[in-house]
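INFO batch 0412 | record 1 of 1 | parsing
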Amino acid sequence: MQLVVLGLNHRTAPVDVRECFAFPEDRIRLMLRRFKRLDRWFEGVILSTCNRTELYAVVEDAQEDLEVIKRLLARMAGEQYDEAYFYCHVDSACIRHLFRVAASLDSLVLGEGQILSQVKSAYALARSMGTTGTMLNTLFNRAIAVGKRVRTDTRIAYSPVSISSAAVELAKKITGDLTLASVLVVGAGKMAELTARHLIENGVSTIFVSNRNLERAQNLAARFHGIAIPFEDFLASAENADIIITSTGAPHYIIKAWDVAHILPRRMGKPLVFIDIAVPRDVEPEVAALTGATLYNIDDLEAVVEANRETREAETPLANAIIEDELAALEERLSYLSMRPVMTQLKDKMDFLRTKMLKRALVKLPDLTEQERRVVERLSKTLLRKFLRDPMMAMQDVAGTRREAFYRRAIKELFNLTQLGEEEDGDETTPDHWDEAE
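INFO prediction complete | emitting tokens
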């Protein structure tokens, strides 16, 4: 058996193509059910996000079986399917790829944390549908642990790499504790919404929102349990704010040095911080020269973001070293796991037959003492271990080699490995005939 991943992501496919493969949960369930019916497809997990869709599978032969999976995927996706958008990794390359995904090394934003929870959710869904087994359970549990280890042992996720998150991080450094800060957000667009979200995540209990369109300000404030302020009143509210974050689309300055100069004396020496993330700028540059006022604009934030991005990228060699270390350990463990289902099936069948025959024998020996019964049962278990030792060692030796498929088929045929309880009637009566002959 082989591990494979077939997928596309933000590097291989444009957004209009990725949208066609961003499957909702009900669609994923349908696909997993269809894949489950394929004869040579043993296990599978589908990971689908806005930036990637990937199918992880355990198949008999990657070269042959991937063609079947591709055709089924093409039928599910429709006209947008184009093989040129997809990548495929097998065995070690598949493991390394999933480890990199879980560690956010393959993300659009290096070090982002959402992908790890998405990997967990995709695995949990597949497991709930019974499409995972020994190999993918082992792989995904290890990948999740690797993702956590990379985030813990490196600084790859420590520094913000978006303008909105950098603005909030800067506000946190200035105030020391955002839970005690009064924050006014001027603007109600996408950047203002992202900033408000980051503020809430960092402990701000109340956000004041102002916008020329009061309804938009009210809608944004409602989403974050904030308070909307009419645009004509925001300067008066600024008097009580600790931090003012501006992100409007105004073509001119909406906060001028003259306005701030009149606000500062009424603040009784309490500093006022402006973080202007608008382009064109919202705050007149001369504000920075006023005593008691601090001004950061988009250039300041971009410099912070670039420095943070470089910090994250500097951590990638350490993260890659962790991944290679974990890969080597998992490969060693998986070297025999691919044969474990057959080994387990053989052991279970032999133990099932041992127990059945033991019960029959004990019925015919009613005068045995309890100690004698235990001796007979121990003998049966010892014989079972002796009989299974050589085939078990042989299967473990060929696991992960080119002889694995041949041995797996041979063991199944030689020992007639059907589901427990499906043995034919003739099999059950044979031991009794032997008793009569004796």
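INFO post-check: The chain has three domains: 2-158+312-334, 163-302, 339-431.
INFO record closed
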